[in-house]
Design a protein that fits this description.
mainly beta; ten-stranded antiparallel beta sheet; elongated
Length: 664
């Protein structure tokens, strides 16, 4: 691989050697003036995430959500694998992955066959952590499809982990938050009240919940009205319940069942009938067919009539459960890009995690254009689409003050949050969501065949790598990135390309960084990766068997996990590292010696190549494990030449601290 100019922080203190555009190599990087061979990709039995057994077979590889969540005060990644017997059930085994590659299994989400022809299985699952409802506070939004039907039948379900993190329980509609959408509604004869009745104007209160059609509406009985208008019409044909509080602590209720239009109960020794016109959303009270005004409370004047009814939102649950991703930022939960509206963001909160407000949504750019990634830098929230990049702002709604509390409700109400969006860049976006990372004040991401950088301070876009195909020889459609210390690491196939962000230089409209290339055994399939404070965690699968595991950079060999008779076994690979300088023009001078200072164990071959790449000198060096301290090595080529490239090839995690060429 050809590299751009690498670094001026080089360890070549003598004037004889310079980095150049044709400096090349693999499996090394430079840090603080030291050339370092990369560490091995290490794994062990304790890092196994999932493997085959005699009863189950993995049908879906490990999927890890890119954004971390907090569990018991600790950061972790959450992921799942899907196993099946291909006939009666599928189950998603869920895992928490902490720093130091600690893995915790937290139960399985089961999807059972219902009947012949009805077998709903997961199409996608996303997770978020919030205040607990009936368990441990980790929620799973699942989009399902009927795998026994060719009609594209879909289903949607929400699960919550149990308090002890051992099992997942389906959240029922009755557990979804029911908003109070109307406060101080008035009756049909309200205008006839004496002026001394200083009631507040009716207030549209909370936004409806996308997850449920249920709602509450509160009214004030004025002693004159027998008819009350709900703020919604075309009410669903489910039960409509009306609670009438006629004295503090004294309440009676009507319930108009689904399919019925009225209900009669005894109130004040009268048979009072409640009529419900679902089409118009009108509630009427009568006695013997004559309108019956509900009397006022004798010890209160506000909101003593509570209506509980249903009006389902079109595709509400679908919009929530088919979201492509989730971001938790500043106690807010943001879902983005769903099957109903690809450019939509939905909002909930940590304190009320099953309340996605109909009136607090945001369309970013074109509604039909998918949001590919949503990132929080700690300062701003940034939305990425294929056609541009946008800044998203959230403004909290202020608290609504009441003169009196709503009957039976003791809580604070707030105006809906307001979401707004402004464009950062309308020319460059990305479809490679897994490559978007924030590091050292900038976003880096892949777009088409190039890599771009956007400093958050300026919002200006710079291309930092022009052609991945040219650099890699491949055009991988699947790519992901992670943070490795001060490096942005891009994974393509079985290679990782590191950008040294500390070397970033911006001059006018041009930005450049130093790049390094790391290669890995073809037997290892990289699924995705994350990091804990710059320490990478690599999620892998073996191409040799159905096994998912974690890899970490440790040791001087690459290790791949595989299975033998359902038991894990290990396959190790030597790491081959290489480095070659530019051609050094020496004007027929005589090379006297080469001085090296190295540490760590490795076997190294050093060669001199002439202008046609022909080898004109070779020697071998071995640094043993018992000699891991710094060691000085001198070679004497005693060679007269007009110039040469210096090439190092080694196996192991060798560090080259000094490299000096002396010539006459």
């Amino acid at each position: 691989m050809k590299f751009p100019y690498l670094s001026k922080k080089n360890f070549f203190k003598e004037k004889s050697v310079e980095w150049g555009e044709n400096t090349s190599g693999e499996n090394f990087l430079i840090k603080d003036g030291t050339l370092i061979g990369r560490k091995g990709l290490f794994t062990s039995e304790e890092f196994i995430i999932e493997q085959d057994n005699s009863n189950d077979e993995i049908v879906k590889a490990l999927t890890v959500q890119p954004e971390k969540i907090f569990v018991e005060g600790r950061e972790c990644y959450i992921g799942y694998t899907v196993l099946s017997d291909y006939d009666s059930y599928q189950k998603a085994n869920v895992y928490l992955i902490f720093a130091k590659n600690e893995i915790k299994r937290i139960g399985s989400i089961y999807f059972q066959r219902v009947t012949d022809g009805v077998f709903y299985v997961p199409e996608s699952i996303i997770f978020y952590k919030a205040r607990s409802l009936n368990g441990g506070g980790i929620y799973a939004l699942s989009s399902l499809y009927n795998c026994d039907s060719g009609q594209g039948e879909k289903g949607y379900a929400i699960f919550e982990i149990s308090e002890d993190f051992s099992e997942w329980n389906r959240v029922s509609e009755s557990d979804f938050y029911i908003p109070t959408i109307y406060y101080n509604g008035r009756g049909n004869r309200y205008g006839e009240l004496p002026s001394s009745y200083n009631f507040e104007k009716p207030t549209e209160l909370e936004s409806r919940n996308l997850l449920t059609g249920l709602f509450y509406a509160y009214f004030t009985t004025d002693g004159l009205s027998y008819s009350f208008q709900l703020p919604l019409s075309d009410i669903e044909n489910y039960s409509v319940v009306c609670d009438f509080t006629y004295k503090k602590g004294k309440t009676c209720s009507w319930c108009v069942q689904g399919g019925a239009t009225s209900d009669t109960i005894n109130v004040f020794d009268k048979e009072v009938t409640m009529h419900c016109n679902r089409k118009t959303g009108t509630i009427t009270f009568s006695v013997d067919g004559v309108g019956y005004p509900l009397q006022m409370m004798d010890d209160g004047v506000q909101n003593n009539l509570k209506i509980h009814a249903t009006k389902t939102l079109d595709s509400g649950l679908k919009r929530v459960c088919t979201s492509k991703g989730v971001l938790c930022a500043d106690s807010k939960i943001l879902l983005f890009s769903n099957d109903k509206a690809a450019g939509e963001i939905l909002l909930s909160s940590f304190e009320n995690p099953l309340y996605f407000k109909k009136d607090t949504t945001l369309t970013v750019g074109d509604e039909a254009e998918e949001i590919t990634a949503l990132k929080n830098s700690g300062k701003t929230i940034t939305a990425f689409k294929t056609d541009g990049i946008y800044k998203v702002d959230i403004k909290d709604g202020k608290q609504i003050a009441f003169n009196e509390l709503i009957s039976e409700v003791d809580k604070a109400f707030y105006e809906p949050e307001k979401l707004s969006v402004s464009p950062i860049n309308r020319d460059i976006g990305t479809s490679f969501s897994k490559t978007v990372k924030y590091i050292n004040g900038s976003f880096i991401f892949r777009a088409d065949d190039s890599l771009y950088l956007i400093p958050e301070s300026s919002g200006k876009t710079y291309k930092i790598l022009d052609s991945l195909r040219e650099k890699t020889g491949e055009n991988y459609n699947d790519a992901f990135a992670f943070i490795f210390g001060e490096f942005y690491a891009l994974s393509l196939g079985n290679k990782i390309y590191l950008a040294d962000i500390t070397s970033l230089k911006i001059a006018g409209n041009v930005a450049s960084v130093n790049w390094y290339s790391l290669s890995f055994p073809k037997e290892v399939l990289f699924l995705s990766a994350g990091d804990f404070e710059g320490e990478p965690v690599i999620f892998c699968s073996s191409l040799l068997s159905n096994i998912n595991y974690i890899g970490c950079f440790k040791g001087d060999k690459d290790i791949c996990l595989e299975l033998s008779y359902y038991q894990p076994s290990f396959k190790s690979f030597d790491i081959s590292c290489s480095f070659k300088t530019d051609y050094l023009g020496l004007s027929s001078r005589k090379l006297e010696k080469l001085d090296l200072k190295v540490k760590n164990s490795a076997k190294m071959c050093i060669s001199l190549l002439d202008e046609s790449e022909r080898e004109i000198f070779r020697d071998f060096i071995e640094v043993r494990k018992s000699e891991e301290k710094v060691k000085n090595i001198t070679l004497y080529p005693s060679l007269r030449t007009s110039g040469a490239s210096i090439q190092l090839v080694w196996k192991g995690n060798l560090s080259l601290l000094k490299f000096k060429v002396l010539y006459k």
